[in-house]
Amino acid sequence: MSHYLEWSRAYSHRLNTADAAPLQARASEMGLRLERELTQGLLPFLSMPYRASLESGLPPVLERMRPCRHMLVLGIGGSALGARAVQKAFAPGQDRPGHTGSSLWIADNVCAEEFEALLAALHPAETAVVCISKSGGTIETLAQYFLVRQWLQDALGEGWREHMTVVTDAVSGYLRQEASSYGLASLEVPDHLGGRYSVLSAVGLLPAAFLGIDWRALLDGAAHAAQPLVEKPRRVGEHPSYALACWARALEIQDYSELILFCYVPRWAAFGPWFAQLWAESLGKDGQGILPVSATGVTDQHSVNQMFLDGRRNKGCIFLTGRRQQPGRAFGQDLPEKWAWLRGKPLGALLEAEALGTRMALCMSGVPLVHLDMEDTGPRSAGAFMLLLEAATLFTGWLMEVNPLDQPAVELGKRLANARLGAPGYEREQTDLDSFMAVPLQEQVF
Ligand code: PA5
């Protein structure tokens, strides 16, 4: 199966191929680094050394959940967004009228109202709860875990353990301790597999499997796309993910500050927020980084597209389309004369035409654009798509000289929140909080 990156409009407006040339020239240096980090086991999202244990460990966990109609995932960030993207793409039935099959609910916020509504509508006996946290210590996820554990215990007594699964580090973290203390079913988040690169591990694949999605096909697609990088890392310069990284880095050097992912596979729309998190947490560092902007065709043609086309000339675009999407039903021959040109055409023709129209309009408006065209829109292609973007993110970070696998800046807000809640060990943050709160307010009433 082949997918295509189309480059004819990528270097346009004030972006020239010459801007990327010095970055492409770094391919051999990057290849050596890739080879080294693969050997050290630092890039499991590419090499997937965990695949065999996942394939043997996941089915029994799934089997235990068989009596449950609902899965409630507790997780946030990389522990939630991938699962949601895969759910929306491949098990969209839950959002449609009359749904009766399995349902997945992802609690990735601390909205008390939403949480209460969810727990009020779910029945513990029918619900498999999956608490997902690589670190096993994320406060939002643990807070939900404590409350849901109580909710299960109140209804099921000791039987709560049968309804709780954790996906976390193999050894460390509070959730791992919980799994050991209570004999909970568990799956591992492999070493060095950070949240936003973990969708193709148990983190994203257990929820996918619960929904009956072909999770092995997702892995196959990713493995296929990763194969040249894993087998011939020194030839990274030939891989499309590296070309994408050079282009994105060149955009930034030329003062472009926003990168649109414009998704014209409507069912894949939730890959937009997944990508935004991947890109932003990986690359917003040291005063650098291009802001990811996720948009969905055709919906956002009637929303943010005006800004893309005629706002600041600071945007590049990855324009995503998929071949062989269902054409859907055709317009009747009795359409009014004014609309006669639609007669006999399927609804899908509209998507195709609008994608072309918008892509052209962006190009004509001076937006450097890479067209990413998927052979089809099945799980195998989605695996390849995710892998491509993960690898491109990694290489962009390397070209920027930042670490694309950490996210140190987000720790400050977490530490301050902990101090606010009275957690011990945050004395300095408490002092900072006191100073912050001491500034006289300048409230304006409206
Ligand atoms: O991508 C990341 O690393 C983060 O967004 C994490 O996924 C998020 O902070 C949740 O972390 P954890 O899985 O440790 O609970």
TrEMBL record:
One of its GO terms (molecular function) is monosaccharide binding. It comes from the Bacteria. Belongs to the GPI family. InterPro entries: G6P_Isomerase (IPR001672), Phosphoglucose_isomerase_CS (IPR018189), SIS_dom_sf (IPR046348), SIS_PGI_1 (IPR035476). GO terms for biological process: gluconeogenesis; glucose 6-phosphate metabolic process; glycolytic process. This is Glucose-6-phosphate isomerase. GO terms for cellular component: cytosol. Keywords: Gluconeogenesis, Glycolysis, Isomerase. The keyword Nucleotidyltransferase does not apply. It catalyses: alpha-D-glucose 6-phosphate = beta-D-fructose 6-phosphate. PROSITE patterns: P_GLUCOSE_ISOMERASE_1 (PS00765), P_GLUCOSE_ISOMERASE_3 (PS51463). Pathway: Carbohydrate degradation; glycolysis; D-glyceraldehyde 3-phosphate and glycerone phosphate from D-glucose: step 2/4. Its EC number is 5.3.1.9. It is an enzyme of class 5 (isomerase).
